[in-house]
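TICKET #2291
ISSUE: user wants both folds in one file
ATTACHMENT 1:
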Amino acid sequence: MPGALGARELGHVLAINSSVFLVGYKALSSGLSNVGIAHAWFLGTVCLAAFQVQGYVLVCAYFVFGTLATKVGKKVKIAEGTYERNEGKRTPASVWGSGFAAAACALAALAFHGDGALCTTLRTGFVASFATKLSDTVA
């Protein structure tokens, strides 16, 4: 359950997320535009702050599997005219199309951290949003 986020915890969240983005920049840039990376950084920060490492791993797994699914069917998608523009790199619109519901759940969980039942519901919505989006991407 999310807890109050003090300055120290926020510092840890920022350091962890920024480190992951620096180390993983090459992989991130294969699936996201540079502006998309900046938006994804914010999304990752909020999700890590609200749902700790478990939630953050879910966001990372969504990115990896979603990017792979997009690239696996590239030839078929090009022939159908459905392949992502920009060499398959996602833009901020794609980041928020995939992550808006999750970010809303994360921000609400941070705001209402003392309400255990609400936070459990928000965590369920967070997981469901990425599961739904990944199933759509893979399909």
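ATTACHMENT 2:
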Amino acid sequence: MQRSLQIFVVVVACYIAAQMLADIGSLRIIAVGGWAVDAGTLVYPFTFTLRDLIHKMAGKSIARTVIFAAAGINIAMAGLFWLIARLPADPGTGPQLEFGEVLAPVWRIVFASILAEVIANLIDTEVYQAWVDRYATRHQWGRVLVSNAVAIPVDSAIFVLVAFGGVLAGATVWEIFWVNVAFKMLITLISIPWIYLVRPTPLRSLETAAET
């Protein structure tokens, strides 16, 4: 019991950390194999399967709570970076402009990231639960594959259109979208076995008891 809870804490920490790193990375557009992609895509796709692990271990209610908690933490992080970039630097250490140049939030991208994360992960939650309601403990690979396949295009569309629509050329926007979807689905396929590595925790039992 204790070990399953310890693993659950680690998974939640990884989920929130991946969300934060993805939001920071999204501030830069990089070229991967000649394709334009926001750098947050290098880590963000893992959050979908991590969310699925949280759902399996602790249930739908806690999975939704973690989604909103991650969004709140990301908002706080962006606000803190904004404040630090605007506070006067100590005269003895120089202007330190590099911090603001790198980490000061671009609020349109921050809003797009958090909006996409919340909506897509909530959709992922509902699709995952629908699969569990139908198949119970059977075909666990399908929970990850189907829920992610539905949520990922929604996530990519919201983020790309809100963050870059009207700012970047239309061809670049669609290129970012399709590369996002393709890369995220590749990560989904790679991470499917993770669902078999975790077990429900006592938190899951409490949710089941509350439902009955």
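RESOLUTION: both attachments delivered.
EXTRA DETAIL ON ATTACHMENT 2: Residues 110 and 137 are 37 Å apart (CA to CA).
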